[in-house]
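Lab notebook, design round three. We kept the backbone fixed and only want residue identities now. Task for the bench partner: fill in a sequence for the structure below.
Input structure tokens:
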């Protein structure tokens, strides 16, 4: 639908195209339009910088904005999710971010945490119990009203979102309420 929000799903080096398509179908079933970023080498490179990723995310969102007035939100895991959060502080067409197992993935102590001081869009932060303390640190400078934490993940990243279990059902409920 043209009025429904757009979810831009980002790859990384650990996820296959078929898994991204499966995630896309689940998001689409919730009523959102989906744009899956191709598994290009930028998002799968080990040495990619935060700035390179943030700039590419911004370009993709700007291009999508040319085709729709619908709200745009991002879905990413691990390192790419940290870049998406930073992008949301710079590109105001991003209206929300769903992150799975985000964290301090870039060089520099507290780099992501410092970069998020200007974050003012809603975030659903999915994580495992073990990841929660570190992830809360990443958001320490973000007003609490913008971040919802869910510790329903049993393993890091997208894995639980791809399953069809009671646990994944809880996670998808949180996602559906979020956007």
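Proposed sequence:
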């Amino acid at each position: 639908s043209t009025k429904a929000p757009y979810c831009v799903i980002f790859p990384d080096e650990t996820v296959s195209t078929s898994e991204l398509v499966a995630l896309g179908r689940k998001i689409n079933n919730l009523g959102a339009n989906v744009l899956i970023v191709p598994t290009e080498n930028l998002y799968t490179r080990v040495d990619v910088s935060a700035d390179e990723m943030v700039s590419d995310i911004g370009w993709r969102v700007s291009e999508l904005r040319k085709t729709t007035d619908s709200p745009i939100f991002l879905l990413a895991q691990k390192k790419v999710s940290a870049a998406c959060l930073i992008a949301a502080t710079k590109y105001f067409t991003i209206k929300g971010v769903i992150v799975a197992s985000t964290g301090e993935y870039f060089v520099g102590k507290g780099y992501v945490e410092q970069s998020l001081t200007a974050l003012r869009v809603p975030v659903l932060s999915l994580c495992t119990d073990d990841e929660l303390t570190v992830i809360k640190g990443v958001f320490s400078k973000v007003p609490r009203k913008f971040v919802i934490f869910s510790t329903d993940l049993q393993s890091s990243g997208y894995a639980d979102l791809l399953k069809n279990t009671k646990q994944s059902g809880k996670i998808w409920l949180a996602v559906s309420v979020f956007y």
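Keep this in mind before ordering anything: The first strand starts at residue 6 and ends at 9.
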